């Protein structure tokens, strides 16, 4: 059995969506990122020294971190679902390219400083005032294309849908991106996506 | 013929090192990142709308961006050199994991704000004062292991060597990481690495 270590509505949501889209069963362990305590008891730092979610524990006990690597692995667990181009093909590099863009330009450069409790007000403000740069690039892409990789949903979209949920809350200018807004609404109607988001939102609401 | 669009000592150095290690010939086009002008004339924005280096133009004219995707592609062009685990293997995810960590935690979260002309003083200062977090993680890894992936050099090391050159200049505390210092010296002695760095440093010195 796989295990996904996550925190509700953190970037690990993309990996939960990936597992749901792939139809791959997993155990889910909720991690308190501040205290590093887990719902299954014990310290999360014993699972991964990075102390960050997502972490995917594979059947053979291998520990995998970093959303781009985890999403690639999940896609390959269910090749019939075509959630990523097959390894070793030219299209696979384009898939990796999107995962890298989302991880660096959208997530780490903007969403992370805006939402992290570790960054100070000036850093948050700088990130908030510059998030339009990746959003504009993504808007142009999704004006021309139904999904990041073209006509078909891939797990790069699982990462982006999480990013857009947070970006929408962070940027008052989100309305200026009609293609992003309709893409977000469309992807959120996929049953696996809708259910994954609903599960984690419910957890956030609990006392 | 491949073409690598680069800027001297920018993160595209990792891709130059990759090509040199792979023994793959390429044309090199120097991009002025401020004006977007190229040594081969014309606007770089016509090559890539992102306007960022590295860009690798493949034989079939495919344009590939993002260091993790480009390094993966280069490694696969010369499988006999074993610069990355083969696509579709479990070890390949670990390779992708390192590329993602370097791209997000070291590069985009710290080196980018420290060196980018676009970020302001407060943002630079915050990044400089927090760079020890990824450096400590890397120090622990390289105390236990000769290279990021274990006993053998991979193109994840090509990315890290560029990162450490910049980190050493940015962090007065770099001396506190003896394993990083000896790793950097050791990797810089590889002929392909030494020559790649020498070529780009010479370009920086030209008037």
Can you give keywords for this protein?
54% helix, 10% strand, 207 residues, alpha+beta, homodimer
Sum this structure up briefly.
Two copies of one chain form a homodimer. Chain A is an alpha+beta fold and 207 residues long.
What does this structure look like?
The structure is a homodimer of 207-residue chains. Chain A has a 5-stranded mixed sheet with strand order 3-2-1-4-5, covered by helices on one side. In chain A, strand 2 (26-32) and strand 3 (37-38) form a beta hairpin. Chain A is built from 8 helices and 5 strands; from the N terminus they run E-H-E-E-E-E-H-H-H-H-H-H-H. In chain A, helix 3 (90-115) packs across helix 4 (121-130) and helix 5 (132-144) crosses helix 7. In chain A, 44% of the residues are buried. Chain A is α+β, with helices and mostly antiparallel strands. The first copy, chain A, has helices at 13-22, 67-77, 90-115, 121-130, 132-144, 155-170, 178-187, 191-205, and strands at 2-6, 26-32, 37-38, 55-57, 63-65. Chain A is globular, with a radius of gyration of 17 Å. Chains A and B meet through helix 2, helix 3 and helix 4 of A and helix 2, helix 3 and helix 4 of B.
Topology:
Two copies of one chain form a homodimer.
Chain A lengths: L1 E5 L6 H10 L3 E7 L4 E2 L16 E3 L5 E3 L1 H11 L12 H26 L5 H10 L1 H13 L10 H16 L7 H10 L3 H15 L2
Parallel strand pairs in A: 1-2
Antiparallel strand pairs in A: 1-4, 2-3, 4-5
Radius of gyration of chain A: 17 Å
Total helical elements of chain A: 8
Averaging pLDDT over every residue of chain A, what do you get? 96
Largest sheet of chain A: 5 strands, mixed
Show unreliable segments of chain A: none
Instruction: Please report the distance between the alpha carbons of the first and last residues of chain A.
Output: 30 Å
Oligomer: homodimer
Helical fraction of chain A:
40-55%
The pair of chains with the biggest contact is: A-B, 42 and 42 residues
The structural class of chain A is alpha+beta
Outline of chain A, from the CA principal axes?
globular
Q: What is the β-strand count of chain A?
A: 5
Strand content of chain A: 5-15%
Strand order of the largest sheet of chain A: 3-2-1-4-5
Helix/strand order of chain A, N-terminal first: EHEEEEHHHHHHH
């Amino acid at each position: 059995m796989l295990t996904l270590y996550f925190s509700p509505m953190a970037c690990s949501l993309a990996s939960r969506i990936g597992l749901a889209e792939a139809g791959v069963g997993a155990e889910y362990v909720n991690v308190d990122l501040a205290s590093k305590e887990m719902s299954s008891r014990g310290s999360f730092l014993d699972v991964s020294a990075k102390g960050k979610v997502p972490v995917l524990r594979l059947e053979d006990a291998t520990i995998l971190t970093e959303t781009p690597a985890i999403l690639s692995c999940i896609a390959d667990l269910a090749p019939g679902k075509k959630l990523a181009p097959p390894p070793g093909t030219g299209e696979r590099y384009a898939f990796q390219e999107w995962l890298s863009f989302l991880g660096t330009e959208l997530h780490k450069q903007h969403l992370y400083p805006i939402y992290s409790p570790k960054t100070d007000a000036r850093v948050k403000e700088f990130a908030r005032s510059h998030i339009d740069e990746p959003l504009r690039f993504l808007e142009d892409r999704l004006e021309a294309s139904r999904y990041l990789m073209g006509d078909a949903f891939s797990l790069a979209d699982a990462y982006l849908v999480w990013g857009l949920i947070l970006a929408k809350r962070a940027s008052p200018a989100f309305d200026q991106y009609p293609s992003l807004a309709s893409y977000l609404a469309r992807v959120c109607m996929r049953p696996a996506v809708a259910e994954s988001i609903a599960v984690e939102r419910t957890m956030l609401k609990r006392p």
